[in-house]
Every structure is written in structure tokens, then in C-alpha cells.
């Protein structure tokens, strides 16, 4: 199952380290089959607020996403970003093939103590 590293980059302070980070990150991703799906894109806010940019990196699985983030190669370049860009980063699993959101809805209803039938 795919996994994703998602960064919400909120506050950017221009510094020569930032382009250095951008130039070096791809080499840290390659050994883990990571690839940029979204990189520094301005978001179109539909609900709420979202100051800043978003980055999404796809991996074949959670193990490789975690291994990339913890790798010595990435940890070496990470401070080039974190010293100058404020943000959050998470790793999340994708949904499995054949995912049915109705099953999730049923689990939520059950957890709420309301296992009534769906509208389908």
C-alpha cells in the first residue's frame, strides 16, 4: 500500500540553504523509490485557512517512507530546510486497493454507538 510524506510549509525565510536543500533532496528519495507528487504548490483553499505551501512525496509503502525520513542522507540535508522554513511534516498510509468508504462510515457509527443502517 502506498504511503505519503506530506509537508505543510507555512513560513519561509529566504536563505541560500533553501535552494541547497531542494537540489539535494532528490538524491535522498531515490533509494526509497520516493517521488514528488506535489512540490511547493500554492493551495486553493476551499474550506478553512491554509497559509503556505504543500509538498507531497509518494512512496511504495510505509516502511520506505519511514526509512527515507530516518536515513542519514535525509537527516543531513533536513536542517537546510528546518532552519529557514516553519512547517509540519507527517507520513500517512494510502488506502488499500478496493477501499470502500462505506466500511469506514460503518465503523464510525459503531464507535459512536449508532450502528443504524446506511442511506444506501
TrEMBL record:
* Listed InterPro entries: Dimeric_a/b-barrel, DUF1330
Domain (DUF1330): give its ranges.
3-95
Matching Pfam families: DUF1330
What the entry lists under Gene3D superfamilies is as follows: 3.30.70.100
| PANTHER family in the record | BLR0684 PROTEIN (PTHR41521:SF4), PTHR41521
What this protein is called in its record is DUF1330 domain-containing protein
Q: What species does this protein belong to?
A: Streptomyces chumphonensis
Amino acid at each position: 500500500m502506498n504511503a505519503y510524506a506530506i509537508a505543510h510549509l507555512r513560513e519561509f525565510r529566504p536563505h541560500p540553504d533553501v535552494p541547497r536543500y531542494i537540489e539535494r533532496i532528490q538524491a535522498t528519495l531515490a533509494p526509497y523509490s520516493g517521488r514528488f507528487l506535489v512540490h511547493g504548490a500554492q493551495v486553493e483553499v476551499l474550506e478553512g485557512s491554509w497559509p503556505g505551501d504543500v509538498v507531497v512525496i509518494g512512496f511504495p509503502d510505509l516502511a520506505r517512507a519511514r526509512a527515507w525520513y530516518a536515513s542519514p542522507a535525509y537527516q543531513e540535508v533536513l536542517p537546510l530546510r528546518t532552519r529557514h522554513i516553519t512547517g509540519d511534516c507527517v507520513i500517512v498510509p494510502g488506502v488499500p486497493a478496493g477501499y470502500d468508504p462505506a466500511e469506514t462510515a460503518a465503523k464510525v457509527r459503531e464507535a459512536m454507538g449508532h450502528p443504524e443502517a446506511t442511506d444506501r
